[in-house]
Amino acid sequence: MLGAQCDCQLMKRHLLEDHSWNSGRTLQVPRRKPEAREAPSRSKRTVRWLANSTREVLTATGIFVLLALLFTLISLLISPPSTQVGSARPFGEIPIHEVELGGLGVLLGAVALGIYGRSGAVVALMLPALSILLDLDHLPSFLGITQPIRPAHSIFFLVADVALTAIVLRRMDFSLIAMSAFAGHLGIDTGLAPPLSPISFDYVQLDPYRVPLLVISTITAFAAGYLLRRSRRRT
Ligand SMILES: [Zn+2]
What we know:
66% helix; two-stranded antiparallel ribbon; mainly alpha
């Protein structure tokens, strides 16, 4: 009984003290005014662009490497034995050839860097890397396994890489860099390649196509740099 009286008194005091009950209005908690969002500074945007670009460069390079190895593996499994005549270059010639391949990428990348500023850095990094990595399809020869000649130096490899890069990254500029690296690589290579591997292992002489391939490589490198600069402006 005593407890019930105490509760009743407490309630009365509470009702008298609370003006919102007396006035019939609901109690409102004052809201803090939302602070105006500050636009990220230029340095923050540059760091964010750099982090995103690094992640995308690594993803695009990973796709390229996986496809080169996949085409090599498929070629080992399905190519007729009569076409398995690929052999690695003499060991002494390999570094010179890879320097040539990387050199073209560095040259195009450096020009892209000069024209497109920091946006061209992605071209400067990826072009030489992809151009050299296409020769991963010589791996079985290095391991002493007979293989077809240059199974990833194929139009189907390029189509698969361009499509997969565009689907995964949704970036046409990265696909253009892969195109440029591929065309530049074939423009430097001499001898035979199977352009329709792994569907057909009929070999074609690359030498007559060197100039058009190098022109395609240059045009696609600059197109990639242009798209990269446009996409960077939007960030
Ligand atoms: Zn090659």
